Amino acid sequence: MNFSIFSASADLVELLLFDNEDVPQPSHVIRLDPVQNRTYHYWHTFVPGLAAGQICACRVHGPSAPSAGLRSDPEKVLLDPYGRSVVVPAHYSRDAAGRPGSNTAIAMKNVVVDLSSFDWEGAVRGLQLAHTTIMRWVQRYVPEFEKRWVRYMRRSGRSWRVDETYLKVRGRWVYLFRGVDRDGNPVDFRLSPKRDVAAAKAFFRKALRTQGRAPVSITLDGYAASHRAVR
Question: What pLDDT, on a 0 to 100 scale, did the predictor assign at position 103?
């Protein structure tokens, strides 16, 4: 099962697995590493072997400042808002989420479902499309979507942090150049088959077009090509 949740303010996210919906403690707690399991504001992990029917939820550790809209509470169990199924304990209490203390035994939780047997309520399934059709859609609509998105996207701060990582896309290893501001807001990203000065310059040109202004400062990792690209 792939698990992903968005949080711009979390310090730590935990995936909880339960044997029953009304037990006071999870049977397993999977702590997501903020380095390995976080991309921008998305916390994610893959848990092999989870079958349909597995009960799960999450906990978020972070700042608590309700007046500023920050309500992290590691004692509270949270639902995945995109989960396709939930289970409700016999003594479920919504009010318990607003009171001090744990609500683990009386909170709703997600249930892993098998999408092959999911009730799509009449939606069309089994539609056959050639891969070239999908490619034409991507080529036609993605540039237009990007133009519209950039128009409404909030510009990031002017202190950037840029690094690169290595990941596999469609069976091929590529480099991901990525940047965030000092508050963790995304600046831009770019995939490249190479990790060299030209690739680093291409990322910075793309980021400058996206943001519409140059940063005041850039913090880089130790890779020399990125430093040469900035100079």
Answer: 92
3-state secondary structure of 30: strand
Residue 164 belongs to domain with CATH number: 3.30.420.10
Q: Are residues 38 and 108 in the same domain?
A: yes
Two structure tokens written together for 111: 């249930």
CB–CB of 3/44 below 8 Å?
A: yes
Q: How many CB atoms lie within 10 A of CB 169?
A: 9
Positive or negative torsion for Cα 24, 90, 97, 17: positive
Q: Encode pLDDT of 154-194 as tens digits.
A: 667 889 999 888 888 778 888 999 998 888 888 888 899 98
What is the DSSP secondary structure assignment for residue 104, as one 8-state letter?
G
Average pLDDT over residues 83-90: 87
Joined tokens for residue 107: 């909170």
Helices (H) and strands (E) in the chain, counts: 3, 14
My answer on whether 101 and 163 are in the same domain is no
Question: Whole-model pTM?
Answer: 0.52
> Has residue 124 got a pLDDT over 70?
no
Q: Indicate the residue among 117, 141, 171 that finishes a domain.
A: 117
Q: Which of 6, 12, 24 is nearest to 109 (CA)?
A: 24
Range of the domain at 185: 156-230
